[in-house]
Write a structure and sequence with these properties.
Blueprint (H helix, E strand, L loop, with lengths): L1 H18 L4 H9 L4 H14 L16 H4 L4 H12 L5 H13 L8 H12 L9 H4 L9
Helix pairs in contact: 1-3, 5-7
């Protein structure tokens, strides 16, 4: 569910950056995309709490990635990372944290947009990193819940 909320947050922040306000038609668009009232409400509440929805100009510098850092991500994931930063969802410090954790973790391939989404959700929603280590990201399909 957090992934869907993050998608709504990205949608809303993009709209706020381009239109300066959120209208009922935006909410209807989210409903047409299949999001529930609870998901939309949660995303909007989070935005209000974090004050990302403010129209104040952000003076934060932009974090440039070197080639080695770029190579940690697939093209799509890198684009998502830069978009999250540009929208103000993650800070330069959080990008540094993500890169440090990837480098010190046991990832066997490039970080794709699904894995990046989990990492960003953990940061954005204040979940502990341990909940998203590679062994926790994907289920094998033979797990049981007790």
């Amino acid at each position: 569910m957090s992934e869907r909320i993050l998608q709504i947050i990205v949608f809303v922040v993009k709209e706020l950056h381009s239109n300066d306000k959120l209208t009922e038609s935006h909410i209807k668009s989210l409903h047409k995309l299949g999001y529930t009232d609870v998901e939309i409400s949660t995303a909007l509440s989070w935005l209000v709490d974090r004050e990302i929805a403010s129209t104040e100009e952000d003076t934060q510098s932009f974090r440039m990635l070197n080639e080695m850092e770029k190579d940690l991500f697939t093209t799509e994931a890198l684009g998502d990372l830069l978009q999250y930063q540009a929208l103000g969802l993650i800070s330069n410090d959080q990008i540094d944290f993500i890169i440090d954790r990837i480098l010190t973790s046991d990832f066997e391939s490039k970080i794709d947009r699904n894995v990046l989404g989990y990492i960003v959700m953990a940061l954005v929603f204040k979940s502990p990193w341990e909940n998203i280590l590679p062994s926790k990201i994907l289920l094998n399909g033979n797990e049981t819940i007790h």
